[in-house]
Inverse folding.
């Protein structure tokens, strides 16, 4: 499993590659690369997109694009990774990056909110089916994180930033450094008795009215 000292990344063999999570051939190639390095212990499904649109005007194409990347992509990647984990017989951990918007929704992001709600439910279901193989499946659900490429232009607006900060009990936007340690926790043996769970890292927003 992942070591708690992340500096170990400087000492191990690693490779990077581009992967379209909706292409079975891309996923298979990624799994093959991991198998060459000894197998998959951890999968983090972090590919995701968001689009804002009036639900009365949203096209079917836009709806499908969001649902496909955010839900189908995570499922296909999880399916392939789980099969590899089972072949190697060591178990493993799958961490799905969900969102507080699975519960705290906005009307102009209906497809995104729907996709994250589906991802949360998929996580719970897969945790049950994969538990006999010692594969854990959990959701890490961030709140608004300012330094990602999901919606970078949004946080350039002072009005948008202030509005989101006002909804967050800790009165600040998240940063990637707030999220990474929680992902590491769910990936590591420190959470060996946790599966089917949702860990909100959202500055208290999920607890607010």
């Amino acid at each position: 499993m992942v070591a708690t000292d992340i500096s170990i990344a400087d000492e191990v063999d690693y490779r990077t590659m581009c992967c379209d999570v909706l292409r079975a051939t891309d996923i298979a190639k990624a799994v093959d690369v991991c198998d060459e390095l000894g197998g998959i212990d951890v999968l983090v499904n972090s590919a995701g997109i968001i689009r804002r649109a009036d639900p009365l005007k949203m096209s079917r194409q836009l709806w499908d694009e969001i649902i496909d990347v955010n839900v189908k992509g995570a499922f296909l990647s999880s399916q392939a990774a789980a099969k590899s984990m089972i072949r190697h017989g060591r178990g493993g951990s799958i961490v799905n990056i969900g969102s507080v918007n699975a519960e705290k929704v906005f009307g102009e992001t209906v497809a995104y909110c729907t996709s994250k709600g589906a991802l949360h439910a998929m996580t719970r279901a897969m945790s049950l089916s994969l538990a006999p193989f010692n594969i854990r499946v959990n959701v890490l659900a961030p709140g608004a994180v300012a330094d990602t490429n999901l919606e970078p232009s949004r946080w350039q607006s002072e009005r948008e930033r202030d509005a989101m900060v006002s909804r967050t009990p800790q009165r600040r936007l998240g940063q990637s450094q707030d999220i990474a340690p929680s992902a590491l926790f769910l990936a590591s043996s420190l959470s060996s008795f946790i599966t089917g769970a949702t860990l909100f890292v959202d500055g208290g927003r999920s607890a607010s009215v």
DSSP finds five helices and four strands in the chain. The domain at 6-207 is CATH 3.40.50.720 (Rossmann fold). The helical segments are 24-36, 60-88, 110-130, 158-167, 176-187.
